[in-house]
Amino acid sequence: MDTRQLRYYVALIEAGTYTKAAEQLHISQPSLSATIKKLEESVGLTLINRGSRSLQLTHEGKILYEEARRFLQHFQHVTDEMERLKQQGPLEISIGLIESTIFFVPEILKQFKQEYEEAKVSLMETLSLSDVEKALYNFDIHLAITNQNIFQNDIETLPIYEEKLVTLIPSGHRLANKRTIQLHDLENESFIVCKEGFQTRQDILNAFNRAGVQPNIQFEIERFETSCSLVEKGLGITVVPENYVTYSKHTNLVVKSLAEDNISRTVYLAYVNNRYMPPIVKRFIEMIETYFK
């Protein structure tokens, strides 16, 4: 089994037919068929069900396809990275972020740029669990600062801090004058919360569940910016990280602490383990860890 065979195999599966795959690979169809046959011989498994008119994979064929696709992505990444190192050195870093990290990331970046003046930094919002995993696996980012609790064996997650969640209430609302808010106060209020797939949603709903309260969810959003705007317009109440509100430009709303002191979320550093990590990325991780010690 070699890289060429795997590349042809993945191309065949994604093209759907031998004819299309051969055209895309700029080889003859018999040559492609022979390569796939040699691949099956080398692994000792039947990968394609030839009793079907359409291209259908065996169970083993599906597994090999997923693993081969991931391997080829990694192989291409390594090839590109080595070429880039020859041309300009390891002076690029891509970071996935959540909104509330605005309270510390600019400070870390200032320190980072003092050490690496020529470094190019790419910042990418990765909010949902699927966003984070996709960006890491596809090499879009080197690391993520996320509140998503990731359960993947090949992704390392390091908790770096806990952040308190607070309530946002429209100005003039009946609850705006209360010193602190209890979750029971929100039971019948129009509630704004993150969409499915966001860990913050789960953290908030778990807190409501512990309090025996069923929230009246009227709006589901992806960004805290949207929820703040909805609160300003009197469309509901929401719960967001205090770190985000501190740096928010929204003014026509009231921030209230929650009486329940166990409502918070954990923020992690996440990266794919067993993958080459440039020294510049390792140094950035060290800076974050030092900041929160």
UniProtKB/TrEMBL annotation:
Residue intervals of the HTH lysR-type domain: 1-58
| UniProt cross-references to PROSITE patterns, sorted A to Z | HTH_LYSR
Segments spanning the bilayer are none
Q: Does the keyword DNA-binding apply?
A: yes
| UniProt keyword annotations, A-Z | DNA-binding, Transcription, Transcription regulation
Kindly give the InterPro entries that the UniProt entry links to this protein.
Answer: HTH-type_LysR_regulators, LysR_HTH_N, LysR_subst-bd
Which protein are we looking at? LysR family transcriptional regulator
